[in-house]
Amino acid sequence: MAGAPTLIGSVQRALHLLDAVGASERPATAKFLARALGLPLPTTYHLLRTLVHEGYLRKLDDGYVLGNRVDALGQRNTVQAVVSRARPALQSLRDELRGATYLSLYQDGEIKLIDVADGPSMPSVDLWVGVHEVGHATAFGKCILSCLDKPGRDDYLSRYKLADLTPHTVTDPRVLEQRLRLNRGVVADREEYLLGTACVAAPVRAPGLIGAVAISAPVRRYPALMADPGALSRAANRVARAVALRA
After folding, report:
1. Residue 190 and residue 57: Cα distance in Å, rounded?
2. What is the distance, to the nearest Å, from the Cα of residue 147 to the centroid of all Cα atoms in its chain?
3. How far apart (Å, rounded) are the C-alpha atoms in residues 68 and 71?
4. Nearest-angstrom CA–CA distance, 199 and 99
């Protein structure tokens, strides 16, 4: 029978302090926190100084409040919650279509790849160029750009050159804009990012969020991926529902 877990008392006390500060409707003083948690006042001061130094708390004239590091954790946890809820759909799609799958989001004006589900026989694409700057050449990038309005696309494309990654990459802004406007549903990249590789993506739309689910495979499988896009669309819809539940 496994023994009880080893717990670090100082860590527990620091976490309880964070909880108490976060639960308080006004800045919490050291004396108030010491009484509330049953801690010696010197110990409370030591823990508070450490948490302030690390950015998890801020010291104001009338007490302590949560710091910027806690806010940053909350923002990261939003993405982690999306990843956690979307992962089963990505894995199911990977196994069904036998290819590495990807989840990307549009955040703060950038295209961000936030999760990949691959395997030994279904390796992910060698991302030799940062995907955030080549939205014009990836299936999930084009899928996201096609979901934006014209000002949104113009903003993104004004910040990133249409790099010529392969002989198949579209680098003419007018041609790219025409294709993005015409895109509906599934979007493809046929050796536009990497020779020998094809990728197909479907949009993920949820309140306050734009993203894409994609699958990559050797280019010889491109016709099969495009012949039946239903599995990809269903996976994108499952991710959208999961994100909506999280919201």
Report:
1. 50
2. 17
3. 5
4. 9
Is the pLDDT at 143 greater than 60, yes or no? Answer: yes
**One-letter-per-residue 3-state SS of the chain:** CCCCCCCCHHHHHHHHHHHHHHHCCCCECHHHHHHHHCCCHHHHHHHHHHHHHCCCEEEECCEEEECHHHHHHHHHHHHHHHHHHHHHHHHHHHHHHCCEEEEEEEECCEEEEEEEECECCECCCCCCCCHHHCCCCCHHHHHHHHHCCHHHHHHHHHHCCCCCCCCCCCCCHHHHHHHHHHCCCCEEEECCCCCCEEEEEEEEEECCEEEEEEEEEEHHHHHHHHHCCHHHHHHHHHHHHHHHHHC
Q: What pTM was computed for the model? A: 0.71
Strands 110-117 and 100-107: antiparallel
C-alpha angle 122-124-128 in degrees, rounded to nearest 5: 150
pLDDT of 78 reads 65
The residue behind tokens 């989840």 is 103
Decide: 187 and 143 in contact? Cβ < 8 Å.
Answer: yes
The model's pLDDT over 10-65, given as tens digits with 9 standing for 90+, comes to 889 999 998 898 888 788 999 999 999 999 999 999 999 999 998 888 888 888 98
CB distance 214 to 233 below 8 Å? no
- pLDDT of the residue at 70: 76
